[in-house]
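Lab notes, practical 5.
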Amino acid sequence: MKIVIPGGTGQVGTILRRALAAAGHEVVILTRRPVREGEVRWDGEHLGPWAEEITGSDVVINLAGRSVSCRYTPANLKAMMDSRVNSARVVGEAIAAAARPPRVWLQMSTATVYAHRFDAPNDERAGVIGGSEPGVPGYWAYSVEIAKNWEQAQEDADTPRTRKVALRSAMVMSPDRGGVFDVLLRLARLGLGGPVAGGAQYVSWIHERDFVRAVEFLVDRDDLAGPVNLAAPGPLPHRAFMRALRTAWGMPVGLPATRWMAELGAFALRSDTELLLKSRRVVPGRLLEAGFAFEHARWPEAAADLVRQVRRGRGRDPRAVSQLNRA
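Output from the prediction step:
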C-alpha cells in the first residue's frame, strides 16, 4: 500500500514510518524540511505539488501540528490551533481534488478533548467533552477548543469517497529518545518520579505497539468512522503510574512534587503543567467493542516491556512492526 503521512517527522510519525516501512509499504512523509528519501515538501497550509502524492494513495494519516511540548503562551496556543486546523483543512482539499482519493483518512486528534475528571472514565459514547470544568486554569479550555476545531476541520471536508477517522490519542509510549516515556523514565531514574500535586489525576497512555496495531485495525475496518479513542483500557492515577515505572526500572525512591514545584519544572523544560495535572481518564470504548485486543493493556507490564527495550537499545523492537497485508 501507499501511505501518506503529513507531519510524519515527530515521535508518532517515526513510530509509524518505522513499522509500516518494515512491512514493505510505500511511506511518503510530508514535511516542511525534507531531508530523507521518501520525504516531500509541504507547508501545511496551501495546496501544492505535494498533493500529487495523495492521488492514488491508499491511506492518509495526518499527524501535522505544532508540538504541545512548549509553554502554553497565547502565541503558542494560537500556533497549535492554526497548524492543526490549517493542515487538516488542506489535506481535506487535496483528498477532495484527487482523481483517485485514498480509501481512508486517519486524522490525529487528542484525548485532551475530554474533561478533567476523576469520577468516571471517558469513552466515545458517554465521555464528557471538556472546556467548562470548574477550578481549572482558563487556558485549559482553549486546549479543548483546539481539539474540537481540529476534528471539525476533518468533518467539514467534502470527501465522500474517503472514510474519515479522528484518532483521539492518549500519550504514545515508546523507548525512542525525546519522547514522553524518555522524559518520564529520566525523572524516575533520578529519583524524581514521585506523585505530582498529590498524584490523583489519571494518566491515559498507549504502548507504541498497540498504537501501530490500532492504526492498522482502523485502516482495515471499513465500518469504523468518526472519533476513536486510542488509549489502553487501564488508565491509572499518576501516583500509581509513576510507581509502576519506578518498579520497572528498579528505583525504590520517587520524590513527590507539589504544584508549584511542577510549575518550576515545566518552566525549566519549556513545557506546561497541563500535561501533568489534567486528569485524562480515557478508555477505548469503540476499539474494544469492535474486537480489538490490546497486547499491552496494563501499565506495569507495558512499562516493563519499554524498560527492556531501553536497556537493550532504543526504538528497535522487532515486534513493533506493521501487520498490515503487504501490498
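Observations recorded by the TA: The mean pLDDT is 91. The chain is about 35% helix and 15% strand.
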